[in-house]
Design goal:
The complex is a heterotrimer of chains A (about 325), B (about 350) and C (about 290).
Chain A lengths: L5 E12 L3 H5 L5 E13 L4 E5 L6 H8 L7 E6 L2 E2 L5 H10 E4 L13 H11 L8 H11 L16 H14 L4 E5 L7 H18 L2 E6 L2 H7 L2 E6 L2 E7 H6 L4 H9 L48 E5 L2 E4 L5
Parallel strand pairs in A: 3-8, 3-9, 6-7, 7-8
Antiparallel strand pairs in A: 1-2, 1-4, 4-5, 9-10, 10-12, 11-12
Helix pairs in contact in A: 4-6, 5-6
Chain B lengths: L3 H11 L2 E14 L2 E14 L3 E5 L6 H8 L8 E10 L2 E2 L5 H10 L1 E4 L3 H4 L6 H13 L3 H14 L5 H4 L9 H14 L4 E5 L7 H18 L2 E6 L2 H7 L2 E6 L2 E7 H6 L4 H9 L48 E4 L2 E3 L4 H5 L4
Parallel strand pairs in B: 3-8, 3-9, 6-7, 7-8
Antiparallel strand pairs in B: 1-2, 1-4, 4-5, 9-10, 10-12, 11-12
Helix pairs in contact in B: 5-6, 5-8, 6-8, 8-9
Chain C lengths: L1 H6 L3 H10 L3 H18 L1 H4 L31 H37 L1 H16 L2 H12 L3 H11 L1 H15 L3 H8 L4 H13 L1 H24 L10 H8 L8 H33 L3
The chains are: A alpha/beta (about 325), B alpha/beta (about 350), C mainly alpha (about 290).
Chain lengths: ~325, ~350, ~290
Amino acid sequence: MTEPLLSIRGLRVEFPKRRTLTGALLGQKPMSARAVDGVDLDVYPRETVGLVGESGSGKTTLGRAILSLYQPSAGQVLFKGQNVSTGDAVARQKLHRNLQMVFQNPYASLNPRMTVAQTIDEALRFHTIVPAQDIPAEIERLLGLVGLTADMANRYPQALSGGQCQRVGLARAMSVQPSMLVLDEAVAALDVSIQAQVLNLLLDLREAFGLAMIFIAHELSVVRHISHRVAVMYLGKIVEIGRRDDIFERPKHPYTQSLLAAVPRLGTAKRKRQAVLQGDIPSPYNIPTGCPFQTRCPSVQDICRSVAPPSITVSADHKADCHFVT
Amino acid sequence: MVAPEQIAADNAAMKPSILEIEDLVVEFHQGNKVVRAANHVSLTIRQGETVGIVGESGSGKSVLCRSILRLLPSPPSFVKSGRITFAGRDLLSLPETEMQEIRGADIAMVFQNPMNALNPVWPIGDQITEGERVHRGLGTRAARTRAVELLKRVGIPSPEMRVDEYPHQWSGGMVQRAVIAMAIAGGPKLILADEPTTALDVTIQDQILALLMDLQAATGTTLILVSHDMAVVAETCDRVAVMYAGRIMELAPTADVFAHPRHPYSLGLLRSIPRIDGKGQRLEPIPGQPPSLSELPAGCPFMPRCSFASPACGTSDVPLREVAKGHFSACIKAEEIAAVAL
Amino acid sequence: MEYSKALNLPLRRRLAEEFSRWPMTLKIGSIMFLGIVLAGIFAPWLVPYDPYTQDLNNTLQPPSLTHPFGTDNFGRDVLTRVLFGIRIDLPFGFLTTYVPMVYGVVLGAMAGYAGGFFDGILMRVLDVVVAFPFLVLIIVIVAILGPGIFNIYLSIFLTAWTMYARLARAEMLVERNKDYILAARNLGYGPGRIVFRHALPNVINSSIVFSMSDFVLNIMLVSGLSFLGLGVTPPTPEWGAMIAEGRDFIFEAWWISTLPGLALVVTGAALCLIGDGLAQRLGERRHALI
């Protein structure tokens, strides 16, 4: 079996909440939000893993912790066997080159004061990807790669459409020749017709460069379209993970089942709706003991309120954290 | 045998109309540019039906919605021509004071971002009943009772306890429920919901859509649902209008549009959406970008991106016409498109 | 390469394009300010008199063709002194505004980006400086070192950076969480490059707009200090000093105080117009992003 490209072990990311002075004097315990709460995940070369969950599930935090934009409070992220948040600056810089990110907001992810060419130029120069005299040609090649024409090079982001900005963000990420992309809601802000263009582009790039991807999204249909495997997150934990078709056709965890049932479908006609889940996701400051999903679970039992569910292996590569997986 | 939805549609068609938009043109003046956000839009909404308006950003769906309530700032926006008739009254020529009455009582609006729709420094209960206190002289105590009743109706648990809380203490889904409570407080005949679930998670979206449909079934209110999400519209609406570049491209019963689109833009949209039940086959995106609304091409605005385009499309405006019973399309080749499989 | 060609668009055309986008306030303000600067530079050629030479036969002359602004109590031509005053007041305003702005913005931006300990220290220093009354500080310095323009510079340099540091820090706190900064971090760029190359151009707008009104206030300040006798010493042709000198003759010779005052007002108006216009122009650029 091949070695995983990225391997996450027991990762926890916590955000401490600042106590007020009076709170501290009154003996309030320091609180912290467990945004990522003990995640294990392997990503293999050329593989796309979809990360789904509602807001507050910790999927974005997990993505950023992989890129060491947040420091983990426990556990580690190994990329090609190397810990992303330790090691000397040179080694980490090299590592960063291999692990790039694409963001949600197409405009905010580009420096408004730099032209497209300047943005890409800087990355190429900084990492000396190509000799200086070849930079203009390389910029043109990268723009072509993401489906932009060379005359876009001198535009500022505000003169581009959302889809074009997202392509520039991709060109910037691709400029340093990464082996893995973390895409955080990369198509969520785009209109459907543009979204389809960018999704196809991602598939092409994945194919051409053998990229591994972590695709973070709340839109389940998009995740199904692009992922090989899917991890479902709830309150900082991966509650179910498996091959795409297992997750979408044979979901085992009641949360995954509810999530899928809640997605509106094009094929159905107008129907009488009965909301599948009541209430909201609990606050990460106050995660219930036992199963995190107990407060909303339609089939909750007594044991769920006291004992954290084990990870049950349903079939090869398919695991769900629930007491009642059959 | 006739399908039940067909019966429902026929029944709806016999109901009197509540809102008629005729040939509406709305322009925005930006410097020396004129942006035409709604371009000869005509739409008739019947009592009690749910009409979805779908389109991408810049398609004019929100502008259309807001011009019904005259909520667009002028300048920069101007209604160049057209009429909007609501329950027999011409909204565009009403004095502002009467318009305020209509906004408070007859037509209500639910916005996309619930957190922005409520004032953060006021208790939620006060905000929900403000309209009734102002317009109907409801007393403080009665208003509180009324607020609790409204919150109960939109499914807020233990409303007596929560009526005095502030928006930031509530989750996005709960605040959207409060916004809906505010909208139904005046007993509106028409609710305009502008992307009411876009900012919400899918399980919360599911709850809010169920709530809207429940309320509608109970009160018989007419609902206009603006959304970029075709699947949301498919599951909730009787009819759907597909907008592009300020025009209605297709208008038909929902099931018809999604099963047999008769406009290449609708067809393109449906082909470019990844399906939740799909197998990951390659998407067929619509090539190119939407046109700039200040430099619209002559003729059909979709022509530059359309794979069915012929020279005739670029010569003159393509009006919406009835191509099958109750099915309108603004395409000269609508019959040809109907034969194309999705 | 196609894109490098486009980069070399003639400078003249790019400037013309930029100018065409300026709001009217910015255009008018800039033209007024340019006129004032030119008048200061060419002062010796614009007027035939010397700002220091006294002419005791011609004291307190009202405005006339030979002396358009009249003469003062020593018979010096007021117009000449007003024009030469530009050479004192404008550079003063410029230096006292932009020198502190440079290190104020840099400190504030660095503190905002770094956060934590460095930020805490800077904020405490800021609090101390802001809490200390400026006039008391300047009187202390002048008392120790004696009056003179250099000491005023010193005291302003010690205090004026605080506003810029605050502004830059506040904007940086917003900016540092934006995706493009995260993208830069993720490309392995160091904090120096991120702060100075990526963030700074985006956090400096509010400081630039503020600097225009600060410029006016600083000119007012030196005039005020000179008026109080703490600033430049007579017979230097400084506007505030001139207003102070004319105070004794305000009833028989209004022009000695009023006309330098008018020059002050016109300069202030020009700068305010520029500030207003810049806010609009820079804001427009920002709005274009949404």
